[in-house]
Amino acid sequence: MKLSLVIPVYNEEENLPLLWQEIQAAVIPLDIPWDVTFVDDGSKDRSAEVLRELAAQNPEQVQVILLNRNYGQTAAITAGIDHSNGDVIILMDADLQNDPADIPLLLEELNKGYDVVSGWRKDRQDNKLTRTIPSKAANWLISTVTGVHLHDYGCTLKAYRREIFNQIRLYGEMHRFIPVYAAEAGAKISEVVVHHHPRIHGKANYGLERTFKVLLDLMTVKFLLSYSKKPIHLFGGVGLGLMVASFLVLLWLAIRRVAAGIPVLGSPWFQISVMSFILGFISILLGLIAELLMRTYYESQNKRTYEIREVIKAGGECSKA
User: Fold this and answer.
1) Which of 38, 57, 72, 278 has the most C-beta neighbours closer than 10 Å?
2) What is the dihedral of CA 82, 88, 94, 95, to 10 degrees?
3) Where are the chain's structural domains?
4) Alpha-carbon distance 140 to 157, whole Å?
5) What is the Cα–Cα distance from 36 to 80, expressed in whole angstroms?
């Protein structure tokens, strides 16, 4: 087994030398092949120069990728994964708040048969008002909506088997939802408590505004996981709901006209019901168009709508997909 660490970096020049020392102290005793891919995400300080020095001093263990500009953490993580070749990939932050000493713990849990092991910062050392409390609320919401129950989606420190990334693609700011995509692909997921340290050097790159981005990303993830292969269920369901509501309102207006003599056309509910019916019809049409697009997407690229973990043949033969 080869281990690859992937570490996105943004303005962490003071933390990098100490981080490298802690990584060595944690990984060398494991006596397994390993390397580290640092991805500088357009840092404005001396992070790139520090990483160049580390790569020059440790050519067999250190690989450095310098991005043209700041693309965001998801893009940096994707670049690191694409350029690493380990059988197991561990993601972690460069700010020294994640503890490299937890790497053996993640590997030990992974060896129990799991595909993903997520770190849980149970004793989180961050500002409670702007980081910890919003994070707990977001974690509860993500777990509830997706059905993948983790205490700490925001913890970058996670271990993955390489094949997980052969089945998922990351866009936008979706790195925190990797366990959700992995679960959708059939991965077995576990969670372990890890250490978390207060930031000593530099400043945090995320604040309270990140919570609102998470909510928007969650809507995207829910749609992609639940309705990307059956969009008519979403659009058609909304459309039928609007049309049924419209019919009930019109029926109520007709009954009121007969029973009390109140004109139908003079009521604002008539216009509302008509608009609801039209919107419902349009929504169903959008669902049908989305179904056509979905089928075109899969059939034009010969994509499968399923993923195989293993094939067991007669006689006991088996092969990995």
Assistant:
1) 38
2) 140
3) 3-227, 231-300
4) 19
5) 9
DSSP 8-state secondary structure symbol assigned to residue 196:
B
Strands 318-320 and 310-312: antiparallel
| Closest among 202, 196, 150 to 176, alpha carbons compared | 150
pLDDT band at 87 (very low <50, low <70, confident <90, very high): very high
> How many angstroms separate the first and last alpha carbons of the chain?
18
Buried b or exposed e, range 164-186, using 16+ CB within 10 angstroms? bbeebebeebbbbbbbbbbbbbe
Tell me the per-residue pLDDT of 50-81, one tens digit each, with 9 for 90 and over: 999 999 999 889 999 999 888 888 889 999 99
SS3 content of the chain, % helix, strand, coil (to 5): 50, 15, 35
- Which SS3 state, helix, strand or coil, does residue 59 take? coil
CA angle 40, 45, 49 (to 5 degrees): 60
Neighbours of 235 (CB within 10 A): 21
Q: What number of CA atoms fall less than 13 Å from residue 172's CA on the CB side? A: 13
- The model carries a pTM of 0.76
For 160-208, how does the pLDDT look when each residue is reduced to its tens digit (9 = 90+)?
999 988 878 777 778 889 999 899 888 999 999 999 888 887 676 665 5
Q: How far apart are CA 207 and CA 132, in angstroms?
A: 11
What's the one-letter identity of residue 141? L
Give the tokens for residue 115: 């595909």
Given a contact cutoff of 8 angstroms between Cβ atoms, the answer to whether 120 and 150 are in contact is yes
The arrangement of secondary structure in 3-227, i.e. its CATH architecture, is Alpha-Beta Complex (3.90)
CA–CA gap between residue 64 and residue 187 (Å, rounded): 29
